[in-house]
Design brief:
Layout (H helix, E strand, L loop, with lengths): L1 H8 L14 E6 L3 H16 L4 H4 L7 E4 L15 E5 L11 E14 L2 E10 L17 E9 L2 E9 L11 H32 L2
Antiparallel strand pairs: 1-7, 2-3, 3-4, 4-5, 5-6, 6-7
Length: 206
């Protein structure tokens, strides 16, 4: 049953196209369904309050930041059309800070029988604080965050799909090579660690 929900949220979840593909899943089974329902309620609330992801993942600071559709910092629950800014600590040749932006394209709540779930699916986006752009981000790159309860088991899953890295322009062959290695190796190592910490934090609330 979990696979059916996974595919409903992320149609490309079983594909392995170019780019990074991860399956991050954390689950806990409770002694009663009632206890699982209480935990799921808390987990789903944490999932929708993006700004609290920093403390949950142990990063502190502002690694995750929610913005509204106009590019203004937002307090409260995430909604479709909002943006999330990720501060990824990947090394760069010029020492520049790396921010990635995604747009929340869909938030889906499902309740069916003894199952509850909520999912947030995002796609890469331009920086909304820099005005409008004609760039189109409708490719296969997505990231889906899911909280789900089936019976007395609560699961948090994160599915980055087809993540691509850009080679930052630098002077000379060695500069470009450095950036390429830092981006590809650093991004994948950091993102896997990052998503595992976030999934643990969402589930435990610690």
């Amino acid at each position: 049953m979990y696979g059916a929900y996974q595919l409903k949220y992320t149609p490309n979840a079983t594909e392995t196209l170019a780019g990074a593909n991860l399956d991050v899943k954390k689950r806990v089974s409770l002694s009663t369904t009632g206890a699982a329902m209480d935990l799921y309620k808390n987990v789903s609330e944490r999932l929708l309050h993006v700004n609290c992801w920093n403390e949950l993942s142990g990063t502190g600071g502002k690694q995750y930041r929610l913005f509204d559709k106009n590019g203004t910092i937002k307090i409260g629950k995430a909604e479709e059309g909002d943006f999330i800014r990720f501060d990824l600590p990947v090394p760069h040749l010029n020492g520049a800070q790396r921010y990635d932006w995604v747009k929340i394209e869909r938030i889906l709540n499902v309740k069916f029988g003894d199952k509850d779930s909520v999912a947030i699916r995002v796609q890469p986006a331009q920086n909304p604080t820099e005005g409008e752009s004609e760039e189109n981000f409708t490719g296969p790159t997505t990231n889906t965050f899911i909280a789900e309860r089936i019976g007395n088991t609560v699961t948090v899953a994160i599915y980055p799909r087809h993540e691509q890295t850009d080679v930052i322009e630098a002077n000379g062959f060695y500069g470009r090579l450095y950036n390429f290695l830092a981006e590809v190796i650093g991004w994948r190592r950091v993102s896997e660690t990052q998503w595992n910490k976030l999934a643990d934090g969402l589930l435990s609330g610690e």
